[in-house]
Design brief:
Blueprint: H1 2-12, H2 31-34, E1 63-80, E2 88-91, E3 98-108, E4 113-128, E5 142-159, E6 162-178, E7 199-213, E8 218-225, E9 229-230, H3 241-244, E10 251-259, E11 263-272, H4 278-281, E12 306-315, E13 321-330, E14 351-360, E15 366-379, H5 387-390, E16 394-411
Antiparallel strand pairs: 1-2, 1-3, 1-16, 3-4, 4-5, 5-6, 6-7, 7-8, 7-9, 8-10, 10-11, 11-12, 12-13, 13-14, 14-15, 15-16
Length: 412
């Protein structure tokens, strides 16, 4: 156990990761779920269940797993129609690739109770421009947000085939921004606005889950994650509303899994309440209503709540090999009139196509692979660059993504 806790501690201090799939949340937790569109609310598959449905630990054997995702986003912005700046294409890929670790343990205690631990990247965003943005500042513009969850879980099978679970999320996040010097006069704290290095914060949250096996073929599940109150980013108290506050919004999910023999079908629906967090949801127009950056009701990114639909398939017609495929669609969180400030955070991808598989070795160990591709999405700005102080015009956002993940699991 000490060895596994040490592994979790190492994951906590690894270099910053970046996620931007369903908004800035990951499209799934665990390499298996990521290979089937992120679906997993009603499907106990691995010890990453603390990030999907905590009740799933009641249906898992004792096991541990370790995995990593290679993530490569392609992001860019275009400025056009501004009288003072010629049409400009901005490359946001100064940092091109990221590695996102995960670690999990499932440990049944008896016929009724089970423990679990999941360590995973909950969400994040990175945009690193190769040059300054003319409206924003004098140095290369960038943001880097990373969120990591350490999630111990207790699940209880209160009736055979029906379980509930509770996860306590220890959340750690890091944020850094550069190239925003021109906003100093529009901030309540210009000294803590930009180019202050990495700032970290922590918080405690929870996730509740239910999983019921209605028959040998059909399972249903539901989960709710409460809003996580995070400590402020002190070094960016002049950027984010409420003096650097950047909480993690609540979300809820429901789904089913249906096993027809060689093929298993899983479907999840999730909803993320980005509107709960002022720094994420407030529009840029707040600035022109007299609310400075960093103030209690200050400007933010203007993101809207998201609905996400996840469909996954598992084909298991061989003794040692499972194949997976999936599709994930998330509604667009960034409205067309909010693209200006979101040049820093262009999380606009919508559709995700996923593939994966698991090979079980003769000793019962599992090697899993997951691939995700999210094709280009462009959001064209509509009245997006404010005429007050910026001259008007439009900012267009573009992003595509791909991930390739590998995990190793072993019973013990």
């Amino acid at each position: 156990m000490r060895r596994w806790i040490s592994i979790a501690a190492v994951l906590l201090v690894l270099p910053a990761m970046a996620l931007a799939t369903n908004g800035y949340f990951s499209h799934g937790v665990g390499i298996k779920a990521k290979g089937m569109g992120g679906a997993g609310i009603a499907l106990p598959q691995d010890a990453m269940a603390g990030g999907n449905n905590p009740a799933a630990f009641s249906f898992l054997e004792r096991r541990f797993e370790l995995g990593v995702d290679w993530f490569r986003p392609d992001r860019s912005s275009v400025i056009l129609g501004n009288p003072g700046i010629p049409e400009t294409v901005l490359d946001g890929n100064d940092t091109a690739s990221f590695f996102i670790p995960e670690f999990g343990i499932a440990w049944p205690l008896n016929d009724d109770f089970a423990l679990g631990l999941s360590v995973y990247g909950n969400g994040g965003m990175n945009t690193s421009y190769t040059e300054p943005i003319a409206f924003f500042g004098t140095t290369n513009a960038s943001v880097n947000l990373s969120q990591l969850f350490v999630a111990p879980t207790l699940s209880y099978e209160f009736v055979p085939g029906n379980a509930i679970g509770l996860t306590f999320n220890y959340a750690w996040q890091s944020f850094e921004a550069t190239g925003l010097q021109y906003f100093e006069a529009s901030s309540v704290d210009g000294a803590n606005l930009t180019d202050n290095g990495a700032s970290t914060s922590t918080g405690i949250g929870f996730r509740l889950g239910y999983l019921g096996q209605l028959s040998e073929a059909l399972s249903i599940g539901a989960a709710y994650q409460g809003k996580t109150d995070m400590a402020e980013f002190d070094e960016y108290a002049g950027l984010f509303a409420e003096a650097g506050d950047f909480d993690i919004p609540s979300s809820y999910s429901a789904g089913f899994a249906y096993d027809v023999g060689a093929i298993l079908l899983a479907f999840d629906w999730s909803h993320i309440n980005y509107s709960e967090v002022v720094a994420i949801a407030n529009p840029m127009s707040k600035l022109f209503e007299g609310n400075l950056l960093g103030s209690e009701d200050g400007p933010g990114f203007g993101w809207e709540d998201m609905d996400i639909f996840k469909l996954g398939l598992v084909y298991s017609n061989w003794e040692t090999l499972d194949l997976r495929a999936g599709f994930n669609y998330g509604s667009q969180p960034i409205p067309a009139d909010a693209t200006f400030f979101n040049m820093l955070a262009p999380g606009v991808v919508e559709s995700h196509y996923t593939f994966g598989g698991t090979w079980t070795t003769p000793k019962g160990c599992e090697i899993s692979l997951g691939l995700m591709y999210a094709p280009d999405v462009t959001i064209e700005g509509e009245n997006s660059i404010p005429p007050e102080g910026f001259g008007g015009g439009e900012a267009d956002l573009n992003m595509s993504q791909m991930t390739l993940g590998l995990s190793y699991a072993k019973p013990f």
